[in-house]
Design goal:
Layout: H1 4-8, E1 11-14, H2 19-30, E2 38-41, E3 62-64, E4 70-72, H3 74-81, H4 95-119, H5 127-149, H6 158-172, H7 184-193, H8 197-200
Parallel strand pairs: 1-2
Antiparallel strand pairs: 1-3, 3-4
Bound molecules: glutathione.
């Protein structure tokens, strides 16, 4: 589209494999803002990446507003999206919702480190970094299995979308992590979350890891 209105639409830069960008893309859909935000795919770690003229950081998600301002960082973009639309806010405001979101964001950060390590040639991988992240991921997953058993991660908010993104990432881009073992409640939670349109419409391609 080339109308002035379309040009002024905020542009959400993403890469298909990025779990952080997926959280924002799902939030756009859950908040029914798909017609208000254009999604633009970009390469990463590439001097020609489409996102670089807008953000020297070069990471996704990045949200370029109509006036050229670029917002980066998943949580900040979720906060911006919450100002629009009539659906319930995605960023939690209560302590338990914030704690739940922080827990899964920490897990995702650890998984990103683990995954990056696995993308290096085998001889360059750090066994101690890998061991630390495997232990962290399993420890948090045990806590999450307990959380969902107790009714946590029920509302579709930032914690929910991040947990769905993490388990979806483990399905397709980080299959080395066998998170299901001894975590039946988490598995059931994921089966339900994966049925949402926002999840199905943002599936990442498999990475082979
Ligand atoms: N803290 C950032 C993390 C974003 C991030 O790490 N994005 C990755 C993709 S999943 C990226 O763009 N990597 C490219 C790079 O590091 O140059 C957020 O919350 O949005």
């Amino acid at each position: 589209m080339s109308t002035p209105l379309a040009l002024a639409l905020p542009q959400l830069f993403y890469s298909e494999g990025s779990p952080y960008a997926r959280i924002c893309r799902m939030a756009v859909r859950e908040r029914r803002l798909a017609g208000e935000v254009a999604e633009v795919v970009t390469t990463l770690r590439d001097p020609k990446a489409a996102v670089l003229p807008h953000s020297p950081v070069g990471r996704v998600p990045a949200l370029v507003l109509g006036d050229g301002t670029t917002l980066t960082e998943t949580t900040l973009i979720l906060g911006w999206l919450d100002k629009y639309g009539s659906q319930p806010a995605i960023l939690p405001s209560d302590n338990s919702g914030l704690a739940a979101y922080g827990r899964v964001l920490g897990l995702l950060d650890g998984m990103a480190v683990w995954n990056r390590e696995l993308r290096r040639p085998e001889s360059e991988r750090s066994p101690s970094v890998l061991a630390l992240e495997v232990t962290r991921a399993n420890r948090v997953a045990d806590a999450l299995n307990h959380d969902v058993t107790a009714g946590g991660y029920a509302a579709v908010d930032a914690g929910y979308l991040t947990l769905a993104t993490i388990l979806g990432y483990a399905e397709r881009r980080h299959t080395v992590w066998k998170w299901r073992e001894n975590r039946p409640a988490l598995e059931q939670w994921f089966q339900r979350a994966a049925q949402r349109d926002a999840f199905q419409e943002t599936l990442p391609p498999p990475s082979g890891i």
